[in-house]
Amino acid sequence: MVLGDGAAMFVLESLESALARGSKILAEFAGYGTTNDAGDLLRPDRDGAARSMRLALEHGGMDPDQIGYVNAHGTGTIANDLNETLALRDVFGEHFDALMISSTKPIHGHALGAGGALELLITLKALEEQIAPPTINFIDVDPKLGFEPVPNVARPFDADVVLSNSFAFGGVNASLALKRYEA
Question: By the 8 A CB rule, do 71 and 53 touch?
C-alpha cells in the first residue's frame, strides 16, 4: 500500500433542482450501501463488504448483472484484496467474470479519508467515458484471487451502471452505485 494525497468534492442535488438550474447532470446517484463490521481494526470482513454491495444494489432496485464496472477498494494488501474478491464473487455470482474491475490506488495512492471521494470521481468519469481505468503495474494473476483486473491499459465497456467500493479501517464499508443519466 502506498499513501496518496488528494481531494474531490461533489454537489448532490435533486433532479428537479438540477434541471431548474440548467445544470449538466453527470450521473444519477442510483444506490448506496453501508455497513460497519466493528470486528477487527485491520482485517476486512468478506460478509460486511458483500452486504454493503448488496445494499447498494437493493437501494437502487438493480440486479448485479446491470453493473458493468467496479472500482474496487483494492489496497494491494493480501487480506483486503482476497476478502474483497470473495465478496465480489458472492454478490455478482456468474456475472463476476463479465465485470470490469480495477483498483486505481496504484495511480493515486491510498488517500485514506479522501480515498473514497477520489475513487468515486474516477468511477464517475469511467461511466461518462465508458472506459474502465487500469490497475497499473499489474504483473500476473494471484492464484488466491483467480482473476485478472483491468491490467495496465484502460478498456472500454458498455454499461449504464457502475459501482465504487470504499472499505475503511475497522470495517466501515461503503458501496455507491452511479447510473448514466438519461434526459
Answer: no
